[in-house]
Amino acid sequence: MIRSMTGFARAEASDAKVVVAVEARSVNHRHLEIAVRLPRVLAGFEMDARRLVQSRLERGRVDISVQLSPITGASLQQVRVDQALARAWLSEARRLGNDLALEAEVDLTWILERPGVARLEEAETAEASLAWPTLEQALSATLDGLVARRTAEGEVLAAELRGLHADLGATVAQIAERAPAAVARRTERLRERIRALLGDATLDESRIATEVAVWAERTDITEELVRLRAHLEQFVLTLDKGGPVGRLFDFLIQELNREVNTVGAKADDLDLSQAVITAKGVLERMREQVQNLE
Fold it and tell me: Which of 140, 153, 264, 282 is placed for a possible disulfide with 276 were both Cys, Cβ 3.0 to 4.6 Å?
């Protein structure tokens, strides 16, 4: 199966206390780049999450976002009271009262309102409760959805590439069909030029034949056509094989472009030049589609 590099998916998993929600977004990128955003209590699982993503995807910029929410009746936070700090506040307040000869009673509310005495913290049991299997379950389900979405889009791209492959193959066939006539026209033009230059002088047919042969060799596109057909065959074989093929398609399109450009440089013929322009247009459309493949 051919896969694209763009997609979105979301999934959840839960235990007795919390729901873990995972979202994954992916876009085009030359390599695999992963960004993972985890709550602090799950930060220790970042490398495990990265390895799981790497086991499922080959290319693309992938953003993973994880959120926690408590099950009804449960809480991910607890109140912490720093008793040592509370005693310090109380001791200092009483000492100051004695120094100033004030009889001010310090109550519990005042102490709890002092900075740092009472605070909310994530529960110590949260990390034990949210062990790796729970996060793995949610992340795996999210990656399943992301891969399915990328595969569906990839099949659409594959169908488009098959159509473009057929168009390019037809254009290459036209070039091969027109090439002999182009050679004949070039040969006749060369003879006419030689005659024009020599005027009434006697023509040396053997010399003309030599010049024609040299020109024909310089403008022969037989090897380029052989390589073009080979690359086109490899292209469709790669489509049939599927899997992570984006980099291979990048290479094949570069090679196809190279051969088409060589044909264009050798084409001393209007029909061939027009066919080359058509082929370049098809290759550009193929290149744009291939940039989206994993």
Answer: 264
Domain that holds residue 96: 77-122
Q: Which amino acid is at 255?
A: E
Contact predicate 117/156, CB 8 Å: no
In a domain, 2, yes or no: no
State which amino acid sits at residue 144: D
Residue type, 224: E
Taking the alpha carbons at both ends of the chain, their separation in whole angstroms is 11
Pair 223, 246 in one domain: yes
- Report the run of H or E that residue 161 belongs to, with start and end: helix 132-198
Shared-domain flag, residues 21 and 137: yes
Cα 255 to chain center, whole Å? 22
Q: Are 232 and 280 within one domain? A: yes
Please name the residue that has the structure tokens 């589609």: 289
Q: Quick check: is 173 in a domain?
A: yes
Q: pLDDT, tens digit, for every residue of 133-166?
A: 899 999 999 999 999 999 999 999 999 999 999 9
What's the pTM? 0.71
Query: For residue 143, what are the contacts with CB-CB under 8 A and spacing of at least 6?
Result: 9, 24, 52, 53, 56, 57
